[in-house]
Amino acid sequence: MPAPEEFVVTPYEVKGKIDYDRLRELFGTQGLTPELLARLHRLAGGELPPLLTRGIYYSHRDLGPLLDAYENGRPFFVYSGRGPSGPLHTSHLIQFDICAWFHRRLGVPMYIQITDDEKFWARSGLTREETARWGLENLYDILALGFDPKRTHVFFDSRSIAAMYPLAIRVARKITFSNVKAVFGFEGSTNIGLVFYTALQSVPAFWPSWAEGRAVPCLIPCGIDQDPHFRLTRDIAEGLGYPKPALLHSKMVMGLLGEGVMSTTGNRADDALFLNDPPKVVERKIRAAFTGGRATVEEQRRLGATPEVCSVWTLWRTRFAPAEAEFEEITRTCRSGELLCGDCKARLIERVHGFYAQHAEAREKVKDWAESTIVTVAPKPL
Ligand code: SF4
């Protein structure tokens, strides 16, 4: 009898030490090979982001056929979403940074879904006003990462429902309660809003095909834990006459507290750097962050530290050291003991402050046009 897995990864539960290769086997996804990366590198004109070169995105479904279509003159679009329950933190940006990269480098449109309805149904402590307010705040943060207003389309669920509903009706008929129960763990006590919401979350993946009356390929970057959800979207696609969306999966990153996968629920606000944290709070959180350092300076100088288990290194790796030379220098000097954790943290604090200042400026500018990206009209009558 095979040994039971030591980890659990579903759209609603992640626990244990994840073996990502094993997880890929269990889910039946494909690895992001050097050949595919080389192809992306060529298509993007000789540039790949650290999220791809450093193995944060590592798995996919049907990326090859998506790129075949692109090269044959059938561009795809990128789709991602956010459930607005509070401020974004820097790890949320992993998903939107890669979207922005495809959007900029391959010139493809971006579709964003803001699921203010779903968060209201899922979190009993949140009011409708709060999920709607966080929806707009989160949208400003996402757009500030560098999306072009002319090629960016937003489904803000409670405000875009008229545009989505004709398609949602057809999607909903293809999904049974057994399907969603298996994927999301719904029970008899689950409110029916959440059950219907699964149809709404598939709508953006098909909407451009519906609107344009032709097959428009879709790419969805997401955490690997969300794969079962989008498998459902893929399963119903062809029955509706639309292409199956391709998926690009990231690993889940550790939080500042260093206890496995980041989680900010409950009293764990110190596990992440929120984009609305004031500078003093950013500094306090980074100073207290879990590292791969040694107990004393003398030991660290002598034996070196372990970057792979360090939450500070994770921040350098995913966002704050985009230049390869700098990232290699941090990793090498950490391992050799030349770099001490206090100095490394001080350098990161400066870097994060710089990013927050630049982001705040970009965020103010998008407020002028954010509303214009919200889709409110269905392309066709019922
Ligand atoms: S030197 Fe930096 S990267 Fe290395 S363990 Fe310490 S904090 Fe982490």
Structure characterization notes:
There is one protein chain. 39% of the residues are buried. This protein has helices spanning 20-27, 34-43, 50-53, 63-71, 93-105, 116-122, 128-143, 157-174, 177-184, 192-212, 227-240, 279-287, 297-303, 311-320, 324-336, 341-366, and strands spanning 7-10, 13-16, 30-31, 57-61, 77-82, 110-114, 152-156, 218-223, 246-250. It has two domains: 27-256, 3-Layer(aba) Sandwich (Rossmann fold), CATH 3.40.50.620; 269-364, Orthogonal Bundle (Tyrosyl-Transfer RNA Synthetase). It contains 16 helices and nine strands. α11 links the parallel β8 (218-223) and β9 (246-250). By secondary structure, the chain is α/β, with parallel strands linked by helices. The longest helix has 26 residues, at 341-366. The radius of gyration is 21 Å and the shape is globular. Helices cover 51% and strands 11% of the residues. α6 packs across α7, α10 (192-212) packs across α11 and α12 packs antiparallel against α16 (341-366). The mean pLDDT is 94. It has a seven-stranded mixed beta sheet with strand order 3-4-9-8-5-6-7, sandwiched between helices. A two-stranded antiparallel ribbon has the order 1-2. The structure holds iron/sulfur cluster.
